[in-house]
TrEMBL record:
<dbReference type="InterPro" id="IPR003961">
    <property type="entry name" value="FN3_dom"/>
</dbReference>
<protein>
    <submittedName>
        <fullName>Fibronectin type III domain containing 7</fullName>
    </submittedName>
</protein>
<feature type="signal peptide">
    <location>
        <begin position="1"/>
        <end position="24"/>
    </location>
</feature>
<feature type="domain" description="Fibronectin type-III">
    <location>
        <begin position="23"/>
        <end position="110"/>
    </location>
</feature>
<feature type="domain" description="Fibronectin type-III">
    <location>
        <begin position="198"/>
        <end position="286"/>
    </location>
</feature>
<feature type="domain" description="Fibronectin type-III">
    <location>
        <begin position="369"/>
        <end position="454"/>
    </location>
</feature>
<dbReference type="Pfam" id="PF00041">
    <property type="entry name" value="fn3"/>
</dbReference>
<dbReference type="InterPro" id="IPR036116">
    <property type="entry name" value="FN3_sf"/>
</dbReference>
<feature type="domain" description="Fibronectin type-III">
    <location>
        <begin position="111"/>
        <end position="197"/>
    </location>
</feature>
<keyword id="KW-0732">Signal</keyword>
<dbReference type="InterPro" id="IPR013783">
    <property type="entry name" value="Ig-like_fold"/>
</dbReference>
Length: 725
């Protein structure tokens, strides 16, 4: 029970603290005033324990609140010249107090919005719109650098002009409005520079080559930039600069300009300076014409131009040589040469200088004519000519005329080949030089050129009994010498004549020739005629040899240097004839009768059938082989061989061949036997009795017989005989 009073006292203390925290003190406004048109400043006594204050401004339409930390405080964002009810509340940790009793305050007038300009170098015009609730305005002006006097004017108007100012000088303008109570409002401040004076002492120089004017002047106070104007009728050129000189480009030739200069700064332009007159150079003369009449003389004419005092015409050839003509007229004369291109320009002159370069005209004279036409090749249907290149020629036209026949060739080279011409014909040949600009020079002279003679035509080739070749041809040329050529593997043979035939001899046998004919005059040689083949008779072989092969067969052989196609051998006697046709170098003839005299003939035959009767020779066939050959014993070691002669007389030789040796015997003339002594017995012998030719050659084609020689008795055993070949 003793603790209950303590609880009651604590509760009472807590209630008292809470009551104290919810009742902050209300501030009291001392004064409220406006110095700026969009705000009101409030002053009050500080409230203990307040951490901040809430200012409220109300005009019946809007309420604006501003939180401030202490006195004084300013409410912003208000309307100018407007009456506001101002209240304040204190704010602490305990909360916000009640609003203070209101206090009225009115915002001051708004600042006028200025528009400033400099209509002249000595004045500044200040303009503004009307300000709400304003009854008058105060405007002052002074140099921005603070030097000099201050001008101040009061007015109820909305514009004011300050005069007698310094040109090109920066001024500061200040203005404000006041209300019926004379309370000034916000002020406006701005800077304005007066415009500059026009530049003086204008100097102009002219560059005739670049067609530009260089203009200079004395700088003027307060000018930031300068503009140079060049006026000529509707044409207007200008240049701008920040220094005291400027160049106006792209001036027109033959034109008079008025040159003036304007100075400018941020206030605007000055008045134009006094204009200076400028005459440019004359324009280049136009309608230039060039004529060459007569050849070698050029006339250059042109039209007159404005501001031109006199003219100079320049003529330069493409080899670099230049001449000129100075005249006050519009015509000049010059000498010219063929094949040149002349470059022509005309200038007009006045005190300003030379006119610009106009069109450069070129005139090309007719190309020169070739003078050294030289035929380097003349044939029956073609002429090749050359000449030295001539000045100005781009193409050469060559014409060859003979009666109604005209042959042409065109080429860029100084040479031409005229083809399809008539042989042995006189042509007038002219080379015309041509250029694309001027065409052909038709004054070139011609030269007479005769083509080479026509080719002859071989009509006939014949051979006489003396193996001389006669050639005949058809001639169609004047004063021509004809040469016939026979050409083959064994050489070249010729004959010549001024007529229509010639003869040549000594051609080798067994040869094939190609025969052609050419005609030759002092101009040249014709083309060869068509060739005609010529074949001489085949050559006869040398060294005819006759060999008896068998009793009825002989071999005829020969040697040769030139091979014929075939050979024919004929063996003939009173008993008959034997022939052999071969392409070899020998021939076998059969059915020969032994011991008879024959005539041997040999013929060489070519592939075309030409025949040479080559050799006639007598030949006596070999003696006939003996008949009835027998052996007889002559004592113990001797043998006699005996035979019978079939026809005629002949020498014979006997040979015995055995294993113990060879034994030979030859009978005396007229006998039909011979003896062999000292022949070994007991052997088998092969016995052959052969006729012997007049040359001593033993013929070996007679039949052989085999005999057995025993060593007892007197008879010989005879075996069978055999023939060889």
């Amino acid at each position: 029970m003793a603790r209950e009073p303590e609880k009651g006292l604590s509760l009472i203390g807590f209630v008292l603290i809470c009551l104290k925290m919810v009742t902050p003190e209300i501030p009291t406004i001392d004064q409220a005033y406006s110095k700026i048109s969009n705000s009101i400043t409030v002053e009050w006594a500080t409230v203990p324990g307040a951490t901040s204050y809430l200012l409220t401004a109300a005009d019946g339409d809007t309420v604006i609140e501003t939180m401030v930390a202490n006195s004084p405080g300013t409410v912003t964002g208000l309307k100018a010249a407007t009456l506001y009810q101002i209240t304040i509340r204190s704010i602490s940790a305990a909360g916000r107090s009640q609003a203070s009793p209101p206090k009225q305050a009115k915002t001051v007038l708004a600042a006028p919005i200025l528009e400033v300009s400099s209509p002249s170098p000595e004045s500044i015009l200040v303009q503004w719109e009307a300000v709400y609730m304003a009854t008058g305005f105060s405007v002052s002006i002074m140099q921005a650098n603070g030097l000099g006097r201050i001008w101040k004017e009061n007015t109820t108007n909305t514009s004011l002009t300050f005069s007698n100012l310094d040109a090109g000088t920066l001024y500061t303008v200040k203005a404000y409005a006041w209300n019926a109570n004379g309370i000034p409002g916000d002020d406006s401040t701005c800077n304005q520079r007066t415009s500059p004076h026009a530049p003086a002492d204008i100097q102009v120089s002219f560059d005739s080559g670049a067609l530009k004017a260089s203009v200079s002047w004395t700088p003027t106070e307060g000018a930031f930039n300068y503009t140079v104007m060049a006026l000529s009728g509707p044409s207007e050129l200008s240049c701008s600069t920040s220094v005291s000189s400027c160049s106006v480009s792209s001036l027109q030739c033959g034109t008079e300009y008025l040159i003036s200069v304007l100075a400018s700064n941020d206030a605007g332009f000055s008045k134009s300076s006094s204009a200076v007159r400028l005459k440019t150079v004359a324009c280049a003369p136009a309608r230039v014409t060039v004529q060459e009449d007569p050849p070698g003389h050029l006339s250059v004419a042109w039209s007159s131009v404005d501001l031109g005092d006199y003219y100079v015409a320049f003529v330069k050839s493409d080899d670099g040589l230049e001449v000129h003509c100075n005249t006050s007229l519009t015509l000049c004369h010059f000498l010219s040469e063929c094949g040149f291109t002349y470059f022509i320009s005309v200038f007009a002159y006045n005190k300003a200088g030379q006119s610009p370069l106009g069109d450069v005209f070129n005139y090309t004279t007719a190309p020169c004519c070739p003078s050294d036409i030289n035929p380097v090749l003349v044939s029956s249907d073609r002429v090749e000519i050359v000449w030295s290149p001539v000045r100005g020629a781009e193409l050469y036209e060559t014409k060859a005329i003979a009666g109604y026949s005209v042959v042409e060739c065109n080429d860029t080279a100084p040479a031409c080949t005229l083809s399809a011409l008539e042989c042995d014909t006189k042509y007038n040949v002219t080379v015309y030089s041509f250029s694309e600009v001027r065409g052909s020079n038709m004054s070139c002279t011609s030269r007479l050129i005769t083509t080479a003679p026509c080719s002859p035509e071989i009509e006939n080739i014949s051979k006489d009994a003396f193996s001389t070749i006669h050639v005949r041809w058809r001639a169609a040329n004047d004063d021509a010498v004809y040469t016939v050529t026979a050409q083959g593997e064994k050489g070249l043979y010729r004959c010549s004549s001024k007529g229509a035939a010639c003869a040549m001899g000594g051609l080798p046998c067994g040869s094939v020739f190609s025969v052609t004919a050419v005609a030759e005059t002092e101009v040249g040689r014709s083309l060869p005629s068509y060739s005609v083949p010529l074949e001489t008779v085949p050559c006869c072989p040398a060294g005819l040899t006759i060999t008896q092969v068998t009793q009825s067969v002989i071999n005829v052989s020969w040697t040769f240097e030139t091979v014929a196609q075939t050979y024919m051998t004929v063996l003939e006697s009173h008993t008959g004839q034997s022939k052999c046709h071969t392409h070899q170098s020998h021939c076998l003839l059969g059915c020969i009768t032994c011991g008879i005299n024959y005539t041997v003939a040999l013929k060489a035959i070519s592939a075309s059938g030409l025949t040479s009767d080559c050799a006639y020779q007598s030949y006596f066939s070999s003696a006939c082989c003996p008949l009835g050959v027998k052996l007889y014993r002559l004592g113990p070691n001797g043998i006699r061989i005996h035979w019978q002669v079939s026809r005629g007389s002949a020498n014979y030789s006997t040979d015995l061949y055995g294993s113990k040796g060879i034994f030979t015997c030859a009978p005396r003339a007229g006998l039909s036997f011979c003896d062999v002594t000292e022949i070994p017995c007991g052997d088998v012998y092969t016995v052959m009795v052969s006729p012997v030719a007049e040359t001593g050659l033993k013929l070996t084609f007679c039949p052989k017989k085999i005999y057995s020689v025993t060593c007892s008795g007197s008879t010989l055993g005879m075996g069978k005989s055999f023939f060889r070949g």
